[in-house]
Amino acid sequence: MPEYLAPGVYPEEVSLRPKSIEGVGTSTTGFVGMTGRGPTGITPPLLTCFADFELYYGGLDNLSIGGKSATNYLAHGARAFFDNGGSRLYVARVLGANAKPGGVLINTDAADEDHKVTFAARTPGGAADPVTHANFSVQLALSKLATTKALAMRQDPGTLVNSGADYFVMGTDPLKTTAGDNGAAFKALDDKAQVSIVTLSAVMRDASGAVVAEYAGLGLDPAHARYAGLVLGPTPPNTRDALTNPVVLNLGSKVDTFGLRAAIEKGSGTYALSGGSDGDGPPADTDWDNALNLLLGLEDISIIAAPGSSSFERATSDSINQKLIGSAETRRAYRIAVLDTPPSMEPNDVRDLKSALDSKYAALYYPWIVVANPLASTDPTQPSTIALPPSGFVCGIYARTDIQRGVFKPPANETVTGAIGLQRDVRFGEQEVLNPLGINCIRSLPNRGFRVWGARTLSSDPDWTYVNVRRYFLYLEASIDQSSQWAVFEPNGPPLWRQVRGAIIDFLRNEWISGALIGATPKEAFYVLCDRSTTMSQNDLDNGRMICEIGVVVVKPAEFVIFRIGQTTIGARD
Hints:
Blueprint: E1 29-33, E2 46-47, H1 50-57, E3 63-65, E4 68-70, H2 73-83, E5 89-93, E6 103-105, E7 117-121, E8 136-149, E9 160-163, E10 166-169, H3 174-177, H4 182-187, E11 194-206, E12 211-218, H5 228-231, H6 239-244, E13 247-251, H7 257-266, E14 270-273, H8 285-296, E15 303-305, H9 314-328, E16 336-340, H10 347-354, E17 362-366, E18 369-372, E19 385-388, H11 391-404, E20 414-415, E21 421-422, H12 428-434, E22 439-445, E23 449-452, H13 467-483, H14 494-513, H15 522-525, E24 526-529, H16 538-542, E25 549-552
Parallel strand pairs: 1-5, 1-15, 15-16, 16-17, 17-22
Antiparallel strand pairs: 2-5, 3-4, 6-7, 7-13, 8-11, 8-14, 9-10, 9-11, 11-12, 18-19, 18-21, 20-23, 22-23, 24-25
């Protein structure tokens, strides 16, 4: 209660209505897996289209694992995610075993390590043949952008200037910033002498020749505001540069302004990085854990998957499935894991795979989906079609359904955008065996295209049979959790209880109006209890517990639509 000590008027702001609860997003997805390039070990950037994925993680080009070309499943999965309606994606990259970055030495005549100027890939990765092909190339060029009077330019700090054979850093003492007698030579110039501003430009291209990053106006001296050794260095001041620039400029400890200029002028101008490798085997077990832990720190993620992980040997893929489930089951993670079956599996094999899985926080999809190979248009050696794991498509369908209908709508009977076939057609009789086990089939239906034809979790608990029920409860729990933090440490009495009840009732009433809850009236669709007589005892109050009980009647899918048809007689229903 405010203090009133002196006579006067005291306006006060008070809340006259319950706190509101805002529904959380449900369509943000997190992928883990191998990519051609990109950041590792840091919080991944948000991707809102496939062009963003290409910017940070490269394109669809195949990986090289153990010297063999391998489909870049995660990149294809990201493309399928966005094509099927996804709009927000995070990717936690994992590296193959013994992956290494490519590199190139610019000044091959360097006297020792301290005088070397090198470019290296910022992160490990390589092309299909890491020995003979470049995973990146860098084109450098020195340019003279302007010519002006020498003395007039001294007040512009941090730019390298050329006067014939003389260079200096503008705004500093030429005697202290040039080599040999260049300072004395420059000092002899008068204000009529002409000098040229010299800058560096750099263009980075991937193995296909596409420009990945481009920089201009870089300085060659540390005093320059855009010093090349900093902007292109291991720790650029701009975070975006650290994420999008695939190469890093490494300078030996004794490389000065003139040594850097000399190295660039003596070189070819274009440098191909080679020797990079995506690894000789699957990522280490702990790398998957670390990647999933990065995604746990992003609270807006509600769907996780690892497109391509099921292509590894069975023991490895089974382990990754368990890690995905474990991550989804983490307390207050509020997410579901979308799992893939391995490629080319028969229905009996899928049954065996399912027998080791039981979770209300995961869903399994079968079979793999065949699409037109986008790489075949530029590389005739590539097959015209490829089979991809379904998780990328399905996660996009989850997002599309959430946006168009709501998270309470089962993500099934939905078309698979981009599909032109299935690796294994599932017949009706086969699905009669698989569906009760919680194996969601993707089917080719006459005149209806390719559709997700299942909406079950992997749980044996009948309360959590359906994906939409699981996801809707996660949505309710996360929404109430995030919007009720204001109640912590409030006085635990009737005023607080009324506010909490009112906020949740208003929230659930809107859910009922939207069709997420069943009932002719709100009273039939849900109830909210929070008071001394029904949900809390004196012991609860003494221990600082406020307990609110919420019951909702959720919508479950019409999985079996039954029409009873029989003969009747005239007037039989009168």
